[in-house]
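Q: I have 197 residues here and want to know how they pack in 3D. Can you give me a structure?
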Amino acid sequence: MSLQLLRHCRLIFAFVVGPVLLAAQSTFPVPLGKVTQDTKSVDVRELVSKYCRLDYEGARLDDQGWSKVEPLVSWKKNPEYIEINVIARYTVDAEPTENHGKYSVVVHYRLLGTYDLLGGYVPEPPNSQQTVEYTVTETKGDFRISDLENNLPHPSRAAMLKWLSDKLTVAPDDLAKKRYQDAIRTLQAQPASPFAK
């Protein structure tokens, strides 16, 4: 008898409570099995990551490369520089911080050395780190890098060696040739691996 009563109660519950739950769901929709999340942080991080990847590949070192970088930033010309930071790798922090519509993204570089356009290449001590904060601003739904603490190029060792070799072939005088040759030799001899001593 109790089993039959239990079945009867379940049937009544289904007919009475079921429509009420369906009406509540249509009036106050609750996502079932779906998680809504703010994609702005992801978009901001991807923008900075794309900029860093192009910079790492040497895009800031010539005019052709700059055309790939320009859509990612709010300025129209490649900023002038007298130094180039050569890096082994970079990491972009996972979570940007937001403040009044601007996002800050921190990028950590493993710095190999700095090339001064007039003085040549100076290696950094092993495992040297450099931290740069990028500011991303949203304008009309479009994100752009609007500022960064260090606007020097940050190419990889391979990109820098290619740039130096290209410069060497068109060097205007012996002093410039020597500067490029010395930089190539020093950079080639420098270990790029973070595990190298």
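Q: Anything worth noting?
A: The CA atoms of residues 70 and 76 lie 6 Å apart. The two ends are 82 Å apart (CA to CA).
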